[in-house]
Design brief:
It is a single chain. This protein is of the alpha+beta class. The protein folds into two domains: about 100 residues, Roll (PH-domain like); about 50 residues, no CATH class. It has three helices and nine strands; from the N terminus they run ββααββββββαβ. Helix 1 packs antiparallel against helix 2. It is elongated, with a radius of gyration of 22 Å.
Length: about 160
């Protein structure tokens, strides 16, 4: 998902992964699936197969851990602030901001070799380069390319002869 805000001085672009469920909804799903697993394990325990309990516990724990990791991944973001003199890129709360000089900055848009490969968007400065929008789908990457071009950055395409 891309949110673009444009003012007279700068353009702010926020990138978020598409999220189908909130953390609260994910917790309810973990609880429901754990209840089903616990019910099945209890049935087997009553039938005398007590060996199933540790495996059911491991399955519930692994399920909860993986759901947590996926949900945590969907809450990352990238922020790009483009002004007349600089481009500021914030990748997450834990990493330092990257600053590019606007006049020395351009965007490399690398189309996928085949239709099912995602395009890659790289912000290139005089001394550094960073891939942005890795978690976006194909339509959002095309929208990001358009937003960066509208903000005044030069878009360089490896396969310039291809249509969008």
């Amino acid at each position: 998902m891309i949110i673009t805000r444009t003012s007279a001085e700068q353009t702010d672009i926020r990138l978020y992964p598409n999220r189908s469920a909130t953390w609260g909804q994910t917790k309810w799903l973990i609880l429901a699936m754990s209840a089903v697993l616990a019910t099945v394990a209890t049935g087997w325990l009553i039938a005398g197969v007590w060996v199933i309990l540790p495996f059911a516990g491991i399955e519930i724990g692994l399920l909860a851990y993986l759901f947590y990791r996926v949900s945590h991944f969907t809450y990352q973001y990238q922020a790009i602030c483009i002004s007349a003199d600089r481009v500021l890129v914030s990748l997450s709360k834990r990493s330092p901001d990257l600053i590019f000089v606007t006049s020395q900055c351009h965007v490399e848009f690398l189309d996928g070799d085949t239709p099912w490969h995602q395009p890659v968007i790289i912000l290139v400065g005089a001394t550094q380069r960073i891939e942005i929008g890795q978690f976006l789908n194909h339509a959002d990457r095309q929208q990001l390319k358009q937003s960066l071009a509208t903000a005044g950055l030069i878009i360089c395409r490896k396969n310039w002869w291809k249509n969008d």
